[in-house]
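One chain shown below:
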Amino acid sequence: MTRGCAVAIGQSYALLLVRVVVGLLFWQHGLEKLFGFAGARPETTLWGIRGIGGILETVGGPLLVLGLFTRPTAFILSGEMAVAYFRAWAPRGFFPIANGGEEATLNAFIFLWLAAAGPGAWSVDAILQRWNWRTPLDRLAPAEPYFRAVLRVIVGFLITLHGCRELFGVLLAVAGRRNAPPLAFDALPSGVGYLELVGGVLLMVGTAVRPVSALLGVQALLAYVLIAAPRGVWPIRNGGIEALVYFAVFAYFAVAGGGAVSLSSDSRPEPAPAGATIEGHSRR
Protein backbone atom coordinates (compact mmCIF):
# COMPACT_ATOMS: atom_id res chain seq x y z
CA MET A 1 0.00 0.00 0.00
CA THR A 2 1.41 3.39 -1.00
CA ARG A 3 1.56 6.31 1.39
CA GLY A 4 -0.99 8.20 -0.67
CA CYS A 5 -3.44 5.31 -0.49
CA ALA A 6 -2.95 4.99 3.28
CA VAL A 7 -3.63 8.71 3.72
CA ALA A 8 -6.80 8.46 1.63
CA ILE A 9 -8.05 5.54 3.72
CA GLY A 10 -7.24 7.40 6.94
CA GLN A 11 -9.15 10.45 5.71
CA SER A 12 -12.11 8.29 4.77
CA TYR A 13 -12.43 6.76 8.24
CA ALA A 14 -11.80 10.07 10.00
CA LEU A 15 -14.60 11.52 7.87
CA LEU A 16 -16.80 8.63 8.96
CA LEU A 17 -16.10 9.57 12.59
CA VAL A 18 -17.15 13.18 12.03
CA ARG A 19 -20.27 12.18 10.12
CA VAL A 20 -21.47 9.69 12.73
CA VAL A 21 -20.66 11.79 15.81
CA VAL A 22 -22.22 14.96 14.44
CA GLY A 23 -25.22 13.07 13.06
CA LEU A 24 -25.99 11.33 16.35
CA LEU A 25 -25.60 14.53 18.37
CA PHE A 26 -27.74 16.48 15.94
CA TRP A 27 -30.42 13.79 16.06
CA GLN A 28 -30.81 14.40 19.80
CA HIS A 29 -31.96 17.96 19.09
CA GLY A 30 -34.68 16.73 16.76
CA LEU A 31 -35.85 14.05 19.19
CA GLU A 32 -35.94 16.68 21.92
CA LYS A 33 -38.15 19.01 19.88
CA LEU A 34 -40.54 16.39 18.49
CA PHE A 35 -40.74 13.76 21.24
CA GLY A 36 -39.47 15.39 24.44
CA PHE A 37 -36.25 13.38 24.43
CA ALA A 38 -34.12 13.51 27.61
CA GLY A 39 -36.80 15.25 29.64
CA ALA A 40 -37.52 18.11 27.26
CA ARG A 41 -40.92 19.57 26.48
CA PRO A 42 -41.89 18.69 22.88
CA GLU A 43 -43.06 21.30 20.42
CA THR A 44 -46.82 21.48 20.07
CA THR A 45 -46.81 23.14 16.62
CA LEU A 46 -44.91 21.14 14.02
CA TRP A 47 -45.24 23.88 11.40
CA GLY A 48 -43.67 26.53 13.60
CA ILE A 49 -40.00 27.40 13.17
CA ARG A 50 -38.89 25.02 15.93
CA GLY A 51 -41.18 22.26 14.73
CA ILE A 52 -39.76 22.42 11.21
CA GLY A 53 -36.28 22.48 12.69
CA GLY A 54 -37.13 19.40 14.72
CA ILE A 55 -38.28 17.56 11.59
CA LEU A 56 -35.07 18.45 9.73
CA GLU A 57 -32.93 17.37 12.68
CA THR A 58 -34.85 14.14 13.33
CA VAL A 59 -34.59 13.09 9.69
CA GLY A 60 -31.21 14.64 8.86
CA GLY A 61 -29.28 13.22 11.81
CA PRO A 62 -29.89 9.55 10.92
CA LEU A 63 -29.29 10.24 7.22
CA LEU A 64 -25.83 11.56 8.10
CA VAL A 65 -25.12 8.58 10.35
CA LEU A 66 -26.05 6.20 7.55
CA GLY A 67 -24.21 8.22 4.93
CA LEU A 68 -27.38 8.40 2.83
CA PHE A 69 -27.87 11.50 0.64
CA THR A 70 -25.00 12.96 2.65
CA ARG A 71 -24.22 15.98 0.53
CA PRO A 72 -27.76 17.32 0.01
CA THR A 73 -28.67 16.56 3.63
CA ALA A 74 -25.61 18.38 4.95
CA PHE A 75 -26.26 21.35 2.64
CA ILE A 76 -29.84 21.73 3.88
CA LEU A 77 -28.83 21.36 7.53
CA SER A 78 -26.08 23.96 7.08
CA GLY A 79 -28.73 26.41 5.93
CA GLU A 80 -30.93 25.52 8.89
CA MET A 81 -28.08 26.22 11.31
CA ALA A 82 -27.29 29.54 9.64
CA VAL A 83 -30.92 30.60 10.01
CA ALA A 84 -30.95 29.41 13.63
CA TYR A 85 -27.80 31.35 14.44
CA PHE A 86 -28.88 34.66 12.96
CA ARG A 87 -32.42 34.33 14.24
CA ALA A 88 -31.80 33.15 17.81
CA TRP A 89 -28.20 33.82 18.81
CA ALA A 90 -26.60 36.66 16.84
CA PRO A 91 -28.97 39.32 18.28
CA ARG A 92 -27.65 38.49 21.76
CA GLY A 93 -24.03 39.37 21.04
CA PHE A 94 -21.21 39.14 18.50
CA PHE A 95 -19.12 36.26 19.87
CA PRO A 96 -20.62 32.76 19.49
CA ILE A 97 -19.14 31.41 22.72
CA ALA A 98 -20.85 34.21 24.63
CA ASN A 99 -24.20 34.50 22.84
CA GLY A 100 -25.05 30.79 23.08
CA GLY A 101 -24.60 30.10 19.38
CA GLU A 102 -21.34 28.16 19.40
CA GLU A 103 -22.91 24.81 18.57
CA ALA A 104 -24.99 26.34 15.76
CA THR A 105 -21.86 27.98 14.33
CA LEU A 106 -19.90 24.72 14.47
CA ASN A 107 -22.70 22.74 12.87
CA ALA A 108 -23.29 25.27 10.10
CA PHE A 109 -19.68 25.10 8.91
CA ILE A 110 -19.25 21.36 9.53
CA PHE A 111 -22.34 20.63 7.44
CA LEU A 112 -21.16 23.01 4.72
CA TRP A 113 -17.83 21.16 4.62
CA LEU A 114 -19.60 17.76 4.56
CA ALA A 115 -21.56 18.94 1.52
CA ALA A 116 -18.20 19.09 -0.26
CA ALA A 117 -16.41 16.22 1.49
CA GLY A 118 -19.10 13.58 1.11
CA PRO A 119 -19.79 10.62 3.40
CA GLY A 120 -16.43 8.90 3.87
CA ALA A 121 -16.22 5.18 4.62
CA TRP A 122 -19.10 2.79 5.31
CA SER A 123 -21.88 4.78 3.70
CA VAL A 124 -25.03 3.96 1.79
CA ASP A 125 -24.02 6.65 -0.71
CA ALA A 126 -21.00 4.55 -1.68
CA ILE A 127 -23.32 1.67 -2.54
CA LEU A 128 -25.57 3.94 -4.58
CA GLN A 129 -22.55 5.27 -6.47
CA ARG A 130 -21.97 1.79 -7.88
CA TRP A 131 -25.19 2.35 -9.83
CA ASN A 132 -23.96 5.79 -10.93
CA TRP A 133 -26.07 7.66 -8.37
CA ARG A 134 -24.93 11.28 -8.37
CA THR A 135 -26.20 14.64 -7.10
CA PRO A 136 -25.31 18.12 -8.35
CA LEU A 137 -23.46 18.73 -5.07
CA ASP A 138 -20.93 16.02 -6.02
CA ARG A 139 -19.33 18.74 -8.13
CA LEU A 140 -18.15 20.37 -4.89
CA ALA A 141 -15.77 17.47 -4.15
CA PRO A 142 -12.69 19.03 -5.82
CA ALA A 143 -13.18 22.13 -3.64
CA GLU A 144 -13.22 20.13 -0.39
CA PRO A 145 -9.76 21.37 0.74
CA TYR A 146 -11.03 24.95 0.54
CA PHE A 147 -14.21 24.20 2.50
CA ARG A 148 -12.00 22.40 5.03
CA ALA A 149 -9.79 25.47 5.31
CA VAL A 150 -12.83 27.64 6.06
CA LEU A 151 -13.89 25.18 8.77
CA ARG A 152 -10.33 25.19 10.17
CA VAL A 153 -10.35 28.99 10.48
CA ILE A 154 -13.77 29.03 12.17
CA VAL A 155 -12.78 26.29 14.63
CA GLY A 156 -9.48 28.04 15.33
CA PHE A 157 -11.31 31.30 16.00
CA LEU A 158 -13.72 29.64 18.44
CA ILE A 159 -10.92 27.84 20.26
CA THR A 160 -8.98 31.11 20.54
CA LEU A 161 -12.03 32.70 22.14
CA HIS A 162 -12.16 29.84 24.67
CA GLY A 163 -8.51 30.48 25.48
CA CYS A 164 -9.23 34.16 26.07
CA ARG A 165 -12.11 33.24 28.35
CA GLU A 166 -9.99 30.82 30.37
CA LEU A 167 -6.97 33.10 30.74
CA PHE A 168 -8.49 36.57 30.97
CA GLY A 169 -12.03 35.98 32.22
CA VAL A 170 -13.65 37.66 29.24
CA LEU A 171 -16.44 36.58 26.85
CA LEU A 172 -18.53 35.06 29.61
CA ALA A 173 -21.73 33.42 28.41
CA VAL A 174 -24.69 35.79 28.47
CA ALA A 175 -27.12 33.43 26.73
CA GLY A 176 -27.54 29.77 25.94
CA ARG A 177 -29.84 26.78 26.12
CA ARG A 178 -32.25 26.85 29.03
CA ASN A 179 -31.39 24.58 31.96
CA ALA A 180 -28.15 23.50 30.27
CA PRO A 181 -25.08 22.90 32.45
CA PRO A 182 -21.82 24.81 31.79
CA LEU A 183 -19.83 23.59 28.82
CA ALA A 184 -17.46 20.77 29.70
CA PHE A 185 -14.90 22.37 27.42
CA ASP A 186 -14.61 25.31 29.81
CA ALA A 187 -14.51 23.27 33.02
CA LEU A 188 -10.94 21.98 32.72
CA PRO A 189 -8.12 23.72 34.67
CA SER A 190 -7.46 27.25 33.46
CA GLY A 191 -3.97 26.30 32.29
CA VAL A 192 -5.48 24.68 29.21
CA GLY A 193 -6.29 28.20 28.10
CA TYR A 194 -2.70 28.57 26.90
CA LEU A 195 -3.12 25.55 24.63
CA GLU A 196 -6.42 26.93 23.34
CA LEU A 197 -5.05 30.42 22.74
CA VAL A 198 -1.88 29.32 20.96
CA GLY A 199 -3.47 26.34 19.24
CA GLY A 200 -6.41 28.37 17.99
CA VAL A 201 -4.13 30.96 16.40
CA LEU A 202 -2.00 28.25 14.78
CA LEU A 203 -5.11 26.65 13.34
CA MET A 204 -6.33 29.93 11.90
CA VAL A 205 -3.07 30.57 10.08
CA GLY A 206 -2.68 26.92 9.10
CA THR A 207 0.57 26.08 10.87
CA ALA A 208 1.33 22.74 12.60
CA VAL A 209 -2.32 21.78 12.11
CA ARG A 210 -1.87 18.04 12.64
CA PRO A 211 0.00 18.08 15.97
CA VAL A 212 -2.04 21.00 17.30
CA SER A 213 -5.27 19.23 16.37
CA ALA A 214 -4.08 16.03 18.05
CA LEU A 215 -3.44 17.92 21.31
CA LEU A 216 -6.73 19.80 21.19
CA GLY A 217 -8.58 16.60 20.33
CA VAL A 218 -7.19 14.92 23.46
CA GLN A 219 -8.25 17.96 25.49
CA ALA A 220 -11.78 17.82 24.08
CA LEU A 221 -12.07 14.10 24.78
CA LEU A 222 -10.82 14.55 28.35
CA ALA A 223 -13.34 17.36 28.86
CA TYR A 224 -16.14 15.01 27.88
CA VAL A 225 -14.94 11.98 29.83
CA LEU A 226 -13.94 13.81 33.02
CA ILE A 227 -16.49 16.63 33.15
CA ALA A 228 -19.54 15.92 30.99
CA ALA A 229 -20.01 12.15 31.20
CA PRO A 230 -20.33 12.05 35.03
CA ARG A 231 -23.21 14.55 34.78
CA GLY A 232 -25.44 12.23 32.79
CA VAL A 233 -25.81 9.90 29.82
CA TRP A 234 -27.02 12.26 27.11
CA PRO A 235 -24.66 14.90 25.69
CA ILE A 236 -27.60 17.22 25.06
CA ARG A 237 -28.07 17.40 28.83
CA ASN A 238 -24.56 17.02 30.26
CA GLY A 239 -22.88 19.99 28.56
CA GLY A 240 -20.66 17.79 26.41
CA ILE A 241 -21.98 18.25 22.87
CA GLU A 242 -19.41 20.87 21.90
CA ALA A 243 -16.58 18.79 23.37
CA LEU A 244 -17.57 15.76 21.29
CA VAL A 245 -17.98 17.81 18.12
CA TYR A 246 -14.56 19.40 18.62
CA PHE A 247 -13.02 15.99 19.28
CA ALA A 248 -14.35 14.57 16.00
CA VAL A 249 -13.26 17.61 13.94
CA PHE A 250 -9.81 17.69 15.52
CA ALA A 251 -9.42 13.97 14.84
CA TYR A 252 -10.08 14.66 11.16
CA PHE A 253 -7.63 17.57 11.05
CA ALA A 254 -5.00 15.44 12.80
CA VAL A 255 -5.30 12.83 10.06
CA ALA A 256 -5.97 14.92 6.97
CA GLY A 257 -4.46 18.33 7.73
CA GLY A 258 -6.18 21.67 7.55
CA GLY A 259 -6.94 21.91 3.86
CA ALA A 260 -5.89 24.63 1.44
CA VAL A 261 -4.71 28.18 2.11
CA SER A 262 -2.21 27.40 4.87
CA LEU A 263 1.27 28.57 5.83
CA SER A 264 2.89 25.16 6.19
CA SER A 265 3.05 22.04 4.07
CA ASP A 266 1.91 19.96 7.07
CA SER A 267 -1.53 21.53 6.75
CA ARG A 268 -2.05 21.12 3.05
CA PRO A 269 -4.11 18.27 1.69
CA GLU A 270 -2.42 15.18 0.37
CA PRO A 271 -3.22 14.56 -3.29
CA ALA A 272 -5.64 11.69 -3.68
CA PRO A 273 -3.98 8.59 -5.12
CA ALA A 274 -4.89 7.66 -8.66
CA GLY A 275 -8.11 5.67 -8.84
CA ALA A 276 -9.30 6.54 -5.32
CA THR A 277 -11.84 8.88 -3.81
CA ILE A 278 -12.06 10.41 -0.36
CA GLU A 279 -14.62 7.72 0.48
CA GLY A 280 -11.85 5.18 0.00
CA HIS A 281 -13.56 3.36 -2.86
CA SER A 282 -11.83 2.66 -6.11
CA ARG A 283 -12.92 4.31 -9.33
CA ARG A 284 -11.43 1.44 -11.27
Observations:
- The chain has one domain: 3-267.
- The mean pLDDT is 89.
- Residues 3-35 form the longest helix (33 residues).
- The chain has eleven helices and no strands.
